[in-house]
Q: What sequence folds into this?
């Protein structure tokens, strides 16, 4: 029964994450046709995610789409975090440990190579 | 596909890590092709990635790593979307997914870390082999016989077992995983391929759970979808850090593949399994042949 609640929580995380990130990527993509991708940063490489906050405040289409992509990558990570909490509420120590290891690996893969 | 639809002649000397420069027309063409890839992928039960990576590499002349970078983020979108539907049906087994994610995430991190050092030819040959395997697994499903589901097993303390409602049998069916070590090992390979090629490796994951671990096909497909997003997120983080996610490619690919997959999911119930596979297998075989030939050094 509690597993159903966990599954509902997981589904909600996935829906919200995918819709919000697709919306951001879509806004960036569409606006790039009108004002170009890079805005006030003509030398900005489309593969470079650095300085995202500053470019986001300037509403650069590239930055909006990049924020969407980062949110998309974060969605499964949130999902794993929710399952850590879910297994903890079921007092399932083995699976709290297993999902926590997965979570640590994911966070490392995001931060490891900066 | 006829050559007139190809946006540019494939370049033979592919340079690693140089962002692709696309015109607005090519951006739109890429969006349309991605919708097609997402549609075909959803019908065939593979993510759009398996189709979009060779298309970007062979037809757009994009470096295979940048193609993988665009694909891997679209894989997260489609698998998460599909996982929601499966979770609501109660088919995905969260314990099985959590345990096997250790294997796929570990493999994906290793794959994404070494992809820069693997020669492009080798990546293309691996991609061709995975395409052929996916076509083959579709072919054998033409005569789909559900495997016997045993009550024994389940991996001891791991409790890799569960109950799902079989629509075909009209009653709940209990299942328990067999050959857990073999399944885990194949999952490491699936993760490695995902990290190297930017694909979801859904076909390999389903084989590991369905054929090796003897989980019901519905449970295998649902759990595989549930795991793909997590596996892809591990690769995607490293791809972004390494500069392999080019937004000009990734934005139309993510939007197109997601839209195509949504349409495909609506279309799927109206088609018979046989129709789907007769459409899907030739597409996979043609792309596989083209990818393998390129990997082996025959310019097309």
A:
């Amino acid at each position: 029964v509690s597993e159903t609640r966990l599954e509902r929580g997981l589904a909600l995380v996935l829906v919200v994450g995918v819709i919000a990130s697709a919306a951001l990527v879509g806004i960036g993509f569409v606006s790039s046709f009108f004002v170009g991708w890079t805005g006030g940063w003509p030398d900005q490489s489309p593969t470079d995610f650095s300085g995202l906050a500053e470019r986001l405040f300037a509403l650069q289409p590239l930055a909006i789409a990049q924020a969407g992509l980062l949110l998309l990558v974060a969605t499964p990570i949130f999902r794993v975090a929710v399952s850590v909490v879910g297994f903890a509420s079921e007092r399932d120590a083995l699976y709290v440990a297993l999902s926590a290891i997965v979570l640590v690996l994911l966070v490392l893969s995001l931060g490891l190579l900066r | 596909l006829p050559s007139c639809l190809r946006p540019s002649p494939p370049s033979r000397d592919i340079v690693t890590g140089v962002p692709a420069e696309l015109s607005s027309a090519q951006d739109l063409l890429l969006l349309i092709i991605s919708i097609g890839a997402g549609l075909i992928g959803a019908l065939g039960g593979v993510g759009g990635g398996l189709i979009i990576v060779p298309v970007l590499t062979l037809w757009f002349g994009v470096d295979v790593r940048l193609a993988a970078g665009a694909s891997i983020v679209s894989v997260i979108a489609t698998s998460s979307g599909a996982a929601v539907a499966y979770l609501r049906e109660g088919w995905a087994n969260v314990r099985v997914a959590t345990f096997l994610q250790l294997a796929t995430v570990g493999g994906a991190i290793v794959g994404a870390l070494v992809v820069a050092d693997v020669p492009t030819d080798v990546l293309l040959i691996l991609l061709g082999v995975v395409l052929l395997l996916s076509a083959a697994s579709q072919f054998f499903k033409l005569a789909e016989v559900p495997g016997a589901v045993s009550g024994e097993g389940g991996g001891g303390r791991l409790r890799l077992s569960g109950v799902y409602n079989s629509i075909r049998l009209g009653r709940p069916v209990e299942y328990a995983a067999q050959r857990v070590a073999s399944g885990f090992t194949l999952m490491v390979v699936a993760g490695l391929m995902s990290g190297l090629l930017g694909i979801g490796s859904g076909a390999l994951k389903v084989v590991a759970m369905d054929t090796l671990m003897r989980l019901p096909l519905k449970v295998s497909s649902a759990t595989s979808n549930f795991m793909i997003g997590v596996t892809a997120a591990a690769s995607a983080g490293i791809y972004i850090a390494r500069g392999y996610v080019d937004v000009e490619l990734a934005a139309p690919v993510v939007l197109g593949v997601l839209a195509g997959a949504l349409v495909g999911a609506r279309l799927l119930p109206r088609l018979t399994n046989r129709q789907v596979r007769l459409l899907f297998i030739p597409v996979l075989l043609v792309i596989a042949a083209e990818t393998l030939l390129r990997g082996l050094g025959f310019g097309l």
Observations:
- Residues 1-17, 142-147 of chain B have pLDDT under 50 and may be disordered.
- The radius of gyration of chain B is 19 Å.
- Chain B is about 65% helix and 5% strand.
- Chain B touches chain A through 54 residues (CB under 8 Å).
